[in-house]
């Protein structure tokens, strides 16, 4: 039977290239009481600030055996933190991983979880430098802390939006919520645990399932936009577009006005919503876990910024504007002609919340 330290060596031993560790300033990584890191070489010549973020994923709260495989859990646990660093305009650097393991999770399953963690880390150049491993009485808990860096004074907060700014997102929203909806329905039909990707491919929902299981944080897009000097606020879409828009509105003291006709409706999401009798707008506003970025940018630079990202193969959708007035979020229903077209609706301050039942 493997003890704690043998398991740690099994799950983390020699997982990352020494070149990546040196690039991120790692002097001493996994294997001691604490990691030792230096400010990464590309930031050492100028003033920089550290960014720190932490996220926790709990079995039965954030995932279960039907919705996600072990490697998916690992990927998403790190990706959520990478997205937080991107939402500040920064570069992710290091990660600490804490895993609380129940007896039902044998070592091989945790090994697959680390496969996903390290795959995400390699994708975004993150050095995993330490963490903690404990037992858990019932459910798996994965907590990840990520450090990042940003040029001194250049971090983008939620509080800078001003009337007249354009509101944008860096990718489709609602796809993760649609993917979760399909996964839960497939599990109820007895598709398996976890529901195999082949079943989603056969049903035309593979892109939705991938959006839920393997989100892709917008690090490059955030860095490009921040470098323009016209970005005024930024937030990542973890709890739903409505919730994140409310956070920017309240932090900045503006009204956020979204236009339904400009929202990025995914064709696969819309098709699945039609088949399942669901409203795709519900997933877009309140689904969450898309991990794209929502932000505001000076109106005069919005089109040029969108073109610059498009030239790099990166999406950017202008979906509304910030306006003077009480903090809040509204939606202009202008997607379809007919009675009520163009009406303005207040958007509820809701999304995923751990303490709302």
Automatic annotation (TrEMBL):
Function: Catalyzes the ATP-dependent phosphorylation of thiamine-monophosphate (TMP) to form thiamine-pyrophosphate (TPP), the active form of vitamin B1.
Record-listed Mg(2+) 2 binding positions: 55, 84
Keywords recorded for this protein, A-Z: ATP-binding, Kinase, Magnesium, Metal-binding, Nucleotide-binding, Thiamine biosynthesis, Transferase
Domain PurM-like N-terminal: 31-150
Pathway(s) where this gene product acts: Cofactor biosynthesis; thiamine diphosphate biosynthesis; thiamine diphosphate from thiamine phosphate: step 1/1
Binding positions (ATP): 114, 131-132, 158, 238
Residues where Mg(2+) 3 binds: 33, 84, 236
Main EC class the enzyme belongs to: transferase
Species annotation: Paenibacillus aurantiacus
EC number: 2.7.4.16
Taxonomy, superkingdom: Bacteria
Positions that bind substrate: 62, 289, 352
Highest classification ranks of the organism: Bacteria, Bacillati, Bacillota, Bacilli, Bacillales
Annotated GO MF terms: thiamine-phosphate kinase activity
Protein name: Thiamine-monophosphate kinase
Binding annotation for Mg(2+) 5: 239
PurM-like C-terminal domain mapped to chain residues: 163-328
Note: Reaction mechanism of ThiL seems to utilize a direct, inline transfer of the gamma-phosphate of ATP to TMP rather than a phosphorylated enzyme intermediate.
Matches recorded under InterPro entries: PurM-like_C_dom (IPR010918), PurM-like_C_sf (IPR036676), PurM-like_N (IPR016188), PurM-like_N_sf (IPR036921), ThiL-like (IPR006283)
Catalytic activity line of the entry: thiamine phosphate + ATP = thiamine diphosphate + ADP
């Amino acid at each position: 039977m493997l003890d704690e330290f043998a398991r740690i060596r099994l799950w983390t031993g020699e997982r990352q290239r020494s070149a990546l560790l040196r690039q991120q300033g790692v002097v001493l990584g996994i294997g001691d009481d604490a990691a030792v890191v230096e400010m990464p070489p590309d930031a050492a010549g100028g003033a920089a600030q550290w960014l720190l973020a932490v996220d926790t994923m709990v079995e039965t709260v954030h995932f279960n055996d039907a919705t996600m495989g072990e490697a998916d859990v690992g990927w998403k646990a790190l990706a959520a933190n990478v997205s937080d660093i991107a939402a500040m305009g920064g570069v992710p650097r290091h990660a600490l991983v804490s895993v609380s393991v129940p007896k039902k999770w044998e070592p091989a399953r945790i090994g697959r979880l680390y496969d996903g963690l390290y795959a995400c880390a390699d994708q975004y150049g993150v050095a995993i430098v330490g963490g903690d491993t404990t037992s858990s009485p019932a459910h798996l808990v994965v907590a990840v802390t990520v450090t990042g860096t940003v040029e001194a004074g250049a971090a983008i907060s939620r509080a800078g939006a001003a009337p007249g700014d354009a509101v944008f997102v860096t990718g489709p929203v609602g796809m993760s919520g649609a993917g979760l909806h399909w996964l839960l329905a497939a599990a109820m039909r007895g598709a398996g645990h976890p529901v195999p990707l082949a079943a989603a491919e056969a049903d035309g929902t593979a892109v939705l399932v991938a959006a839920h299981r393997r989100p892709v944080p917008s690090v490059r897009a955030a860095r490009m936009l921040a470098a323009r000097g016209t970005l005024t606020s930024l937030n990542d879409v973890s709890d739903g577009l409505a919730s994140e828009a409310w956070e920017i509105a309240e932090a900045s003291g503006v009204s956020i006005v979204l236009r339904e006709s400009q929202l990025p409706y995914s064709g696969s999401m819309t098709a699945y919503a039609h088949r399942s009798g669901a409203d795709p707008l519900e997933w877009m506003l309140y689904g969450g876990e898309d991990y794209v970025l929502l932000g505001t940018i000076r109106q005069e630079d919005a089109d040029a910024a969108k073109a610059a990202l498009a030239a790099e193969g990166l999406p950017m959708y202008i979906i509304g504007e910030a306006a003077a007035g009480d903090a809040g979020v509204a939606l202009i229903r202008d997607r379809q002609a007919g009675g009520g077209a163009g009406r303005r609706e207040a958007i509820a301050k809701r999304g995923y919340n751990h303490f709302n039942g």
